[in-house]
Amino acid sequence: MADVNRGNRPLSPHLTVYRPQLTSMTSIFTRITGVAMLLAGLLIVWWFLAAATSPEYFATVDGLITSVLGDLIMTLSVLALWYHALAGLRHLIWDSGRALDVETSEKLGVAMMILSVVLTILTVLIV
């Protein structure tokens, strides 16, 4: 039989009970960076297709990608790449059964965020 009080209950009570944790936020951000890298990859494929199409079309696309907005997008995609790679390494560590306690897991999350920014800066400066 249908519950007559269904409309009076909250649909997601866990949202009011739990606070966001570092490990959950880094997991969500790993998924976001995966999607961001896909979009950056599509931009790079668009650039290659424009190069194969015509010099005029390539100049248009190259102008967009080498603009300030394009530089920002590519720099953020490098950050997403480093973050995602380091998150993958962290998951490999977890898969081996190590660093599963909360304190070590949070330290790995902070280290992953800091190291991704440092590696992005080094990549941008070197390349």
Task: Kindly describe this structure.
The mean pLDDT is 90. The chain is 79% helix and 0% strand. Helix 2 (22-53) runs antiparallel to helix 3 and helix 2 crosses helix 4. By secondary structure, the chain is mostly helical. The longest helix has 32 residues, at 22-53. It is built from 5 helices and no strands.
How is this structure best summarized?
This protein is mainly α. The chain has helices spanning 14-17, 22-53, 55-65, 68-95, 102-126.
Determine the mean pLDDT.
Answer: 90
**Measured on Cα atoms, how large is the radius of gyration?**
21 Å
What is the overall silhouette? flat
| Helix/strand/pairing category | mainly alpha
What string gives the helices and strands in order?
HHHHH
Total of helices: 5
Named CATH architecture: Up-down Bundle
Tell me the CATH superfamily: Fumarate reductase/succinate dehydrogenase, transmembrane subunit
Which percent range describes the beta-strand content?
under 5%
What is the CATH third-level topology name? 3 helical TM bundles of succinate and fumarate reductases
Helical coverage, percent range: over 70%
Tell me the total number of β-strands: 0
- So what's the CATH class? Mainly Alpha
Largest sheet: none
